[in-house]
Every structure is written in structure tokens, then in C-alpha cells.
Amino acid sequence: MSTLSTTTPLSIDRKVIAEGYRDRSMTADDYSNKQSSGGIVLMGVGEMGGVFARGFLAAGHSVHPLRRSDDPGATARNVPDPVLVPVTVGETDLDEALDSLPERWADRLLLIQNELLPATWLAHGISRPTVAVVWFEKKPGQDVKVILSTPVAGSGAGLVVSALDGIGIPSHIVSQGTGLEFELVRKNLYILTANITGLDTGGTVAAMWDEHRALAESVAGDVLDMQEHLVGHALDRPAVVEGMVEAIEGDPEHKTTGRSAPARLRRAIDHADAASLPVPTLRDIARRHVVSS
User: How far apart are CA 117 and CA 186, in angstroms?
Assistant: First the structure.
């Protein structure tokens, strides 16, 4: 990403997609005859940001990186009308990032973080961002690894799907209402169940589900209690669990846990405390691993 300039667009004067998702029946090809000169403002230039930058560049967009040390106001003056503003910072930096962005970009945002739910962006006065529920990973020195097709919803969904398709990453458009909510909850259930159960079991997600099913199901139940509280209604639990299992089968050798697992458990306990939820299995695991909220 060191080649990205903050002042000069990286690619210009080619056909790009300007209008976003309008109807759930539309596909990425429906957008290919649109044009825009606004370019992409990319906030976050780490591994995941690099993947999205590559996709947008391959699709013919100019990409203007917005780094942590940059002034968003200055970038907004240079790029006043971006077609999309992907925010690819980590979930722990998202609140600060959203607070720093110009209000006029609110309807251009693309969010990709784990642990997202509508309450996340509504708390910042953002009503309808584009959201990609990312099912691929990129680690330093490694190629992109795809687990499942990435669902994308919102006004920029067609643009995102076209960009990812151009670099060989499968994705598809979903509706911005119930379709997106299901996909977000499914991803949250997968991440939290694997990370939190993995603090006890270690190993792979397949081994977690095959050899420690009772513990994993108990963790998943606690996680769904929290997800239901956060979305404000009951969920189709069997369908969400089935979706989680699909992800497990998509990459059975995926490790259950990493360095972010204790922090995820801590945030989960904080959510449970705020909602007065018992989540006994999560609390038991937290005590065993000395995770305090």
C-alpha cells in the first residue's frame, strides 16, 4: 500500500459503477453501464483495505487512501463527491473512525467489520450504509482465503460485488433489511462461537463442532441471546445455526481462536451485563481464562 498517493488518483477515465443497489433482484451486471468520476476514498490501508483497493483499481476506479494520520476534512475537500467510502479499520477502531468522517459521506460508507449490527451505525446517525459481510481473510504474506461468498447490501452493493468479482472473490447482493440482518447475525454467531469456545478447546472449527458440540452449542445459545437483544426481536435460531455450520464446513481447518478472542469475550460480557442477560457459559469461560469486563 506504500504506492498509494493521497493526492493523485491511481486509476482514471474508465467505466465504473455509480448507482448502487436499488432492487434485490438486480445483479452486479446491471450496473456495468454506469459512470462516475468521484472515485473511492479508502479509510484503512491494512491487509483487508489492500484487498478492496486492488478490487476497485482492477474495476477502473481511482482510489484515494485516508490513513490514520490524514485529515478527513482535507480529503473531503480534495474528493468532495466519492462514489464510495470503504471503512476497513478494525472493529475496535470503528466508532472513532465513523465519528471523524464528514457527514456528507454518510450515505457513501461501506462497512466490513466483524461484530456489526444495525445498532452499530445507527448510533452514529448513519441510516443506510453499504455493508459487506466478509467471508474471506487476508493475512500478511498470504493469498486471500475464501470461506463463503460475501453478501453485500446497500446502495453500493453492485459496485462492491463487481470489484470483488474482478479479483476472483465470490460475493452476491442481499436485501438491506432482513437479508442483511440474517447475514450479520450468522457471521457474528460464527466468529463469537468459534473464538469463545476455542478459548477452552483450541484446535479447528471442525473439531470444535464435532468433538465439543455440547460446549459449542451452549456458547452459541448465549451468543444468540445477546444477538436477539441487540436486534430487538427473536431470531430463527435453527436457520442461523445452520448458516454457521455452513461456514464451518466451508473451511473446516480454520483455527477457532486468535489473539482477538479474549477481547471478543470481554465485549460479549459487557453486552450481557448491559442487558442483564445471564449468559452462564460465557461467564464460566471468562472465569476460567481470567477475562474481566
Answer: 11
* Contacts (Cβ under 8 Å, ≥6 apart) of 231: 117, 118, 119, 181, 185
pLDDT digits (tens, 9 = 90+) for 252-266: 999 999 899 999 999
**Nearest of 134, 131, 167 to residue 148 by alpha carbon:** 134
**Identity of residue 71:** D
Pick the CATH number of 179-288 from 1.10.1040.10, 1.10.10.10, 1.10.3660.10, 1.25.60.10: 1.10.1040.10
- CB neighbour list of residue 196: distance below 8 Å, 6 or more residues apart: 219, 223, 261, 264, 265, 268, 282, 285
Report, as an integer, the average pLDDT of 216-234.
97
User: Distances from the Cα of 20 to the Cαs of 35, 94, 129, in angstroms?
Assistant: 12, 23, 11
Q: Please name the helix (run of DSSP H) or strand (run of DSSP E) that holds residue 223, with its range, or none.
A: helix 213-231
pLDDT score, position 290: 76
User: Half-sphere exposure of 145 toward its Cβ, with a 13 Å CA cutoff?
Assistant: 12
Q: Report pTM.
A: 0.85
CA separation for the pair 143, 62 (Å, rounded): 23
Residues 6+ apart with CB under 8 A from 183: 133, 151, 153, 174
